[in-house]
Design a protein that fits this description.
Elements: H1 2-12, H2 34-37, H3 44-57, H4 61-74, H5 79-91, H6 95-108, H7 113-125, H8 129-135, H9 147-160, H10 163-172, H11 179-198, H12 202-215, H13 220-234, H14 247-250, E1 280-286, H15 299-313, E2 323-327, H16 333-349, E3 354-367, E4 373-379, E5 395-396, H17 397-405, E6 412-419, E7 431-432, E8 442-448, E9 455-456, E10 461-462, H18 463-475, E11 483-485, H19 486-499, E12 504-509, E13 515-518
Parallel strand pairs: 1-2, 1-3, 3-6, 4-7, 6-8
Antiparallel strand pairs: 3-4, 4-5, 8-12, 9-10, 11-13
Helix pairs in contact: 1-4, 3-4, 3-15, 4-5, 5-6, 6-7, 7-8, 7-9, 8-9, 9-10, 10-11, 11-12, 11-13, 12-13, 15-18, 18-19
Length: about 525
């Protein structure tokens, strides 16, 4: 418990409540690399960090929210990041901060009906009934019979004890709202009249109930209650109905509808549509801490970010059913081969299924006898011995090619973000055996030097994976058809790497473009 509040104070420190959105004109970068400064979109690193934070949020909400807070500080004009930061705050029961963030969004630019309803719900929970009422009148939400807005309006009327007004509102929009909204309004209206009756206003309560039964003759609830109340006027010995608690007394929302604020933060918030194959399987491995030495600094983050992104824009189901990951200690040779075998086994059941294999870690070029031409790449697992060039201790790129080439599936994609180990510097081949990179399937491969500029440290990502994921998020959709295919993604990522002069060898092979992600964004 003490740990929770300590972390909560750290997160709260990211924003001074009520002042954050006044600082939108100030753009602050944390740890930006020289490469990042050259990007045309200054918020690219912040978006990547936000994606990573949401991948972390489900496992560790406090850490995830803190990183999301940093992303919003770095790019306060990105409304999607701020919107999701509000959701994270709400999920951590920091509702006042969530309310202030969303309020700033609604006041500083175009806002959706969803945002107004979320503000209404949050204001209601904070006891700000007047503000809740004002939010649901924005954008003519009540006039358009928005169910969420009507639910909030009913909640406000309940909280104020205006049950007959709530009933009139429910009747007015009865055709456009769920039946239980109206039933709850009727229930509270009848109960409020019984409590007036018991408090001594017998004739007034009976008269009001009679009018309600005349207005709604088809509803037996009012006629039954009216007859009983009229009988109770004459016979005081009748047992009164047991008093039910009313919302204006308990001061708690009824929650007529689903709470729109209860969902998980989702930075991409993109329409999830399965690729044309109808099913997909992915195995992603990342190693930044080898048993005896360090690997690429952001390999694990890249693999986890990509796993999260696949569930948002590529139609994969969350969890281990369609996506398996192996990071650091779990990425030993036996487990990597098991993961590749799992991919091949799943894909073989249905040749319509797509297959994706991603590896981020160290790789050692293997030379021919003359020591000039590269004939293969040795992917190094976590348990690789120091200075080992033994192909028995790793997995050859040609071996991966062989394992997947027997599949009849058309949609096979292999993505590798590789870095040479420190002891292999200077052992770069003068040329490569072209057959190694001639694949019938799609191969996207980056082989990096060991230079720090090849990373986007402020986004905790390697440059190749960073640009590739941003391509998948929509940057590469040059024909504006709502899809990013493999050719578009690789071309866009390559152009960014080339324009920044990064030390990378990029390899590409494919039979035909495959749809990689759907990028029809949901507007907040």
């Amino acid at each position: 418990m003490h740990f929770f509040f300590h972390r909560a104070r750290r997160i709260c420190a990211c924003f001074a409540t009520g002042l954050f959105l006044q600082l939108f004109a100030v753009l602050v970068f944390f740890g930006a690399t020289p490469a990042l400064a050259d990007l045309p979109d200054d918020c690219s690193a912040a978006c990547a960090k936000a994606i990573m934070s949401l991948a972390l949020f489900d496992q560790n909400p406090m850490d995830g929210a803190e990183k999301l807070c940093q992303a919003a500080n770095a790019c306060p004009q990105n409304r999607t990041i701020v919107f999701n930061l509000g959701l994270a705050k709400y999920r951590l029961n920091q509702k006042e901060q969530a309310y202030n963030l969303w309020k700033g969004l609604a006041q500083s630019g175009p806002a959706s009906a969803r945002l107004f309803v979320m503000l209404g719900w949050t204001a209601l929970e904070l006891g700000k009934h007047d503000q809740a009422w004002e939010w649901v009148f924005r954008d003519e939400l009540l006039a358009r019979s928005d169910p969420g807005a009507i639910a909030v309006a009913l909640e406000v009327l309940f909280a104020r004890g205006h049950y007959e007004k709530a009933l009139a509102l429910a009747w007015e929009h009865g055709e456009n709202i769920p039946d239980h909204y109206r039933r709850k309004a009727e229930e509270f209206a009848v109960e409020a009249l019984w409590q007036r009756f018991k408090a001594g206003e017998k004739e007034g309560a009976a008269k009001t109930l009679s009018k309600l039964s005349e207005k709604m003759p088809q509803n037996p609830r009012f006629a039954t209650a009216r007859d009983f109340m009229v009988a109770a006027l004459v016979d005081e010995t009748l047992s009164m109905p047991y008093a039910q608690p009313l919302p204006h007394v308990s001061r708690r929302p009824v929650y007529l509808g689903d709470n729109p604020n209860s969902g998980s933060p989702d930075i991409a918030n993109l329409e999830i549509t399965l690729p044309q194959t109808g099913c997909s399987w992915a195995f992603l491995a990342g190693i930044d801490e080898y048993r005896y030495f360090l690997g690429p600094p952001h390999a694990v983050n890249d693999s986890l970010q990509l796993a999260r992104l696949l569930t948002r824009v590529s139609g994969f189901a969350p969890g281990p059913y369609q996506i398996r990951t192996a990071v650091n200690r779990d990425a030993q040779k036996e487990n990597l081969l098991d993961g590749l075998g799992w991919l091949a086994q799943k894909a073989a059941f249905d040749t319509r299924c797509g297959v994706l294999f991603y590896f981020s870690g160290l790789a050692l070029p293997l030379m021919d006898i003359a020591g000039e031409k590269g004939v293969d790449l040795l992917l190094l697992p976590h348990d690789t011995p120091i200075n080992s060039a033994d192909s028995e201790r790793g997995i050859l790129l040609s071996q991966v090619k062989q394992m997947l080439s027997g599949l009849k599936n058309e949609g096979i994609i292999v993505i590798m973000d590789l870095r040479r180990p420190f002891w292999a510097s200077g052992k770069e081949p003068a040329e490569w055996d072209s057959a190694l990179f001639e694949w019938d399937n799609t191969l996207m491969l980056s082989l990096n030097g060991d230079r720090a500029i090849n990373n986007i440290d402020s986004a905790q990502s390697s440059a190749f994976s960073f640009f590739l994921m941003h391509a998948m998020m929509g940057r590469a959709d040059r024909d504006h058809d709502g899809w990013v295919d493999t050719a578009e993604a690789f071309a866009w990522a390559s152009s960014r790497i080339s324009s920044l002069g990064l030390d990378m060898e990029l390899k590409w092979s494919q039979s035909r473009p495959l749809r990689l992600s759907r990028v029809n964004a949901y507007e907040h």
